[in-house]
Amino acid sequence: MSDDIPVRVRSEIAALPPYKQGKQAGADAFKLSSNENPFGPLPSVVEALQRQTAINRYPDATAARLRHALAARYGVTPDEVHIGSGSVAIIAQLMLAAAGPGDEVVYAWRSFEAYPGLVLIAGATPVEVPLLPDARHDLDAMAAAITPRTRAVIVCTPNNPTGPIVTQAEFDAFIQKVPSDVLVLLDEAYAEFVTHPDAVHGRTVLASGAHPNVVVLRTFSKAYGLAGLRVGYAIGHRRVLDAARSTAIPLSVTAQAEEGALASLAAEDELLERVSHLVARRDGLVAALRAQGWRIPDAQGNFVWLATGAETTAVAAVFDEAGLIVRAFAGDGIRISVGEPEAVDKVIQIAASVVGTLQAGHSARAIA
Ligand SMILES: Cc1ncc(COP(=O)(O)O)c(C=O)c1O
Q1: Which of 156, 301, 338, 358 measures 20 to 30 Å from 201, CA to CA?
Q2: Can you tell me whether residue 294 is helix, strand or coil?
Q3: Which helix (H) or strand (E) holds 190?
Q4: What CATH number is associated with residue 342?
Q5: Closest residue (by CA) to atom 3 of ligand 1?
Q6: Which residues does 312 contact at the CB level (< 8 Å), separation at least 6?
Q7: Does residue 118 line the site of ligand 1, with CB under 6 A?
Q8: Does 227 sit in the ligand 1 pocket, CB within 6 Å?
Q9: What average pLDDT does the chain have?
Q10: Is pLDDT above 80 for 25?
Q11: What is the pTM of this model?
C-alpha cells in the first residue's frame, strides 16, 4: 500500500515528521531521555489515586478543587488558574487561541522540542532565535525579532534542553520591549530544580501585576513526579486563560490527575526533599563531566547538555550501547536526564570514554 496520506490534510501538517516517542528503556537500561523523575510515586499519592475509582463518571471539567488549591498558593483567584493535561496541552491551547495563519510566534532555539510543532499546528509561523554561545536565551535578539505579526513569545527557563535560566533582570528588561498585546509564555517546567540566585520567578512577575500579557506555565510532571498522570497548570490573566479554556479539548484532565496533583501538593515537603537530592546529583554530575573536560552549560533543570554537534548520533549510540537511553538531537547535542544514582555513575563512566574522542576545540569540550 502507498505510504501517501489517502485524504487531504493541511500541507503544513503533512510536512511534519510522523510522531515518534522517545525510545523506551529495556529492563536493564536507564531511561534518561524525557527528564522524568526517577523516584517512584509517594505512597500517599498512590493511596489518593486508589480512592478515585468512579471512572464511570466524567471528571470535573474545570478541575475546581485543584484550581482553588493553586489559587490559594499563588494569591490569585481560581479563574486566574487553568489546568491542562500536561503543561504542553496549555501551550497548544494558547497557540491556537493567539496565533493563526500569517501570525508569528517567537522562541529561542534550541528549546523545548514541542514548540515548533504546536506553532505549526495552529497554522502560525515559528520564528526561532538562536541561543547565545553559552546556551542561554538571547533576549535582545528575541525582542528584535518581534514584528507586527508576532502574537506570542515563549521564554523557557531553565531552557530545555540546554539548562541555563533567564535572570530576573534580563526578563524585566525584555518585557519592557514586548508590546503589551503580545502574549508572553514563561515556561517554568523545571522551576523547582533552579538554584541560581538571580533566576526570574514567574510568581514575582505575576505579583507585580504590571504585565497582564504574561502567562506562567508549571507542571506536575517533573519535580512532582506525575509525568504519567498528565497534569500541568497556567497562572495568568483570567481573560487570557479563558481563551485557553475555549480551545481546550473538553474534559481532558482526568479526576485521577486532579487527585494526584492535590495529593502531591499535600506532600510537597517530601517531594521537594527528593528534588534537593536530584539537584545535588545534578551538580555532582556537572562537576564530574566538567572535570573530564566537557563544556557543560549551567544546568538548572534535571538534565545536562552535551553540545556534541556533528558527533551527536555517534556519541548517543555509545550511551545507548551502555544501556543509557539519552535524548539525541541530531547535529546539535545530547540531553541526559538526572536519573537514579547508578545511572548517573554510568553516565560519568561512559562520558569519560567519549570526551577524549572529540577533537580539541570541539563545541562539547572545554577550552583547555
Ligand atoms: C520546557 C517544557 N515545557 C513543558 C513541558 C511539558 O510538560 P508536561 O506536558 O508533562 O506538563 C516539558 C516537558 O518535557 C518541557 O520540557
Answers
A1: 338
A2: strand
A3: none
A4: 3.90.1150.10
A5: 189
A6: 328, 329, 330, 331, 332, 333, 334
A7: no
A8: yes
A9: 96
A10: no
A11: 0.96
